[in-house]
């Protein structure tokens, strides 16, 4: 875990907050007259110092002594050398690394749900290729890579899954090389409107990166649309999608685009307005700004909706935790039996009624924990990613 940076050594620099370096950067600018070149150099130095905090380090790790010769040591890559933990160093959890791992898994699952399994494997290879260079979970782009390099990371058996139908029923290994198929998947992921991959022209031709910024926005919208569909129906979700696509519309414009009767649209917009999902902007037609001389545009305040959805998820998690506590309190007598040492070593000491009650309790607790885990994933997408 220390080598993979899931835990990091506690050092004195960790007590500094992230904006201390920025304050140090602004101080010379306030006290001295600096040229644009000096300002760029100062900002570059501050950025390098800030990035150094997130660089992979092996503080608290010691190389093991072995009997390798000097020549073999020179041929060994540093990352492949065996390390041991220094017992005198304290370690702490690297929450940023865990969040990056969770985000990468969600993105690959999203590609599997939207396209197929092989597309998810290709996205996972892009993320695995640049995992050592990913420093923050809120980055906009992943480290770039080429389809050829990604194809070398994947096994040739990847094309035998049946996700791709080759012409004339020929064998995939004979009719199409792995690199050609991966390039096709890369083009498919680039063309997808969700924004899985985007070309990086600064690095040269053929470089692609995972577009975290666009994926973050689309994953949040998907959660929000699922919430609206489940709570208010498909027609309301359709209206929300139209407003998100067109920005601001009147009710008559919504009626023409959605082909839903006007009285139904007004009724659904009223319900969404009461819930705070849509809002109205009044546009006066004349200078007197009278209400009867104005038209009203409907729009969706996305950030406000996300905050409201996060609040609702927190409330649901609290209710689930209270339900779990209540379920355990109702079975206080059973928990007392299970805490006995003889019952813990041999569950057969319980009678059939107690065993059935233990099974029911485990099912209820498992369902509650699964629901909490799904809600935690939604919180990660809406708040952390």
TrEMBL record:
Boundaries of every DNA-directed RNA polymerase III subunit RPC3 winged-helix domain copy: 225-300
SUPFAM superfamilies in UniProt: Winged helix' DNA-binding domain (SSF46785)
One Pfam assignment: RNA_pol_Rpc82
GO CC terms: RNA polymerase III complex
Localisation per UniProt entry: Nucleus
Cross-referenced InterPro entries: POLR3C_WHD, RNA_pol_III_Rpc82_C, RPC3, WH-like_DNA-bd_sf, WH_DNA-bd_sf
Family: Belongs to the RNA polymerase beta chain family.
Its job: DNA-dependent RNA polymerase catalyzes the transcription of DNA into RNA using the four ribonucleoside triphosphates as substrates. Specific core component of RNA polymerase III which synthesizes small RNAs, such as 5S rRNA and tRNAs.
UniProt subunit comment: Component of the RNA polymerase III (Pol III) complex consisting of 17 subunits.
Name under which the protein is recorded: DNA-directed RNA polymerase III subunit RPC3
């Amino acid at each position: 875990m220390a080598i993979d940076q899931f835990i990091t050594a506690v050092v004195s620099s960790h007590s500094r907050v992230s904006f201390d370096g920025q304050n140090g950067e602004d101080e010379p600018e306030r006290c001295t007259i600096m040229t644009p070149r000096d300002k760029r150099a100062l900002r570059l130095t501050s950025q390098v110092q800030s990035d150094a905090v997130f660089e992979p380090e092996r503080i608290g790790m010691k190389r093991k002594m072995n009997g390798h010769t000097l020549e073999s040591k020179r041929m060994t890559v540093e990352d492949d050398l065996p390390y041991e933990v220094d017992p005198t160093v304290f370690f702490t959890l690297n929450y940023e690394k865990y969040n990056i791992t969770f985000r990468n898994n969600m993105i690959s699952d999203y590609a599997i749900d939207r396209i197929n399994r092989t597309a998810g494997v290709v996205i996972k290879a892009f993320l695995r290729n640049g995992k050592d260079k990913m420093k923050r979970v809120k980055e906009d782009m992943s480290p770039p890579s080429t389809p050829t390099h990604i194809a070398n990371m994947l096994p040739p058996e990847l094309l035998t899954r049946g996700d791709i139908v080759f012409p004339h029923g020929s064998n995939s290994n004979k009719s199409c090389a792995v690199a050609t198929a991966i390039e096709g998947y890369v083009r498919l992921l680039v063309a997808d409107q969700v924004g899985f991959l985007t070309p990086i022209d600064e690095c040269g031709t053929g470089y692609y990166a995972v577009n975290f910024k666009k994926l973050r926005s689309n994953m949040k919208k998907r959660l929000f649309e699922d919430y609206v569909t489940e709570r208010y129906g498909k027609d309301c979700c359709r209206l929300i999608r139209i407003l998100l696509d067109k920005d601001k519309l009147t009710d008559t414009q919504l009626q023409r685009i959605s082909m839903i009767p006007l009285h139904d649209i007004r009724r659904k917009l009223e319900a969404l307005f009461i819930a705070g999902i849509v809002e109205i902007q009044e546009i006066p037609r004349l200078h007197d700004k009278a209400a009867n001389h104005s038209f009203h545009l409907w729009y969706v305040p996305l950030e406000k909706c996300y905050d409201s959805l996060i609040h609702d998820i927190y409330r649901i998690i609290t209710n689930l935790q209270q339900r779990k506590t209540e379920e355990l309190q109702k079975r206080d007598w059973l928990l007392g039996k299970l805490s006995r040492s003889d019952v813990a070593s041999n569950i057969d000491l319980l009678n059939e009624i107690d065993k059935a009650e233990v099974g029911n309790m485990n099912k209820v607790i498992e369902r509650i924990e699964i629901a909490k885990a799904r809600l935690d994933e939604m919180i990660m997408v809406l708040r952390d990613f």
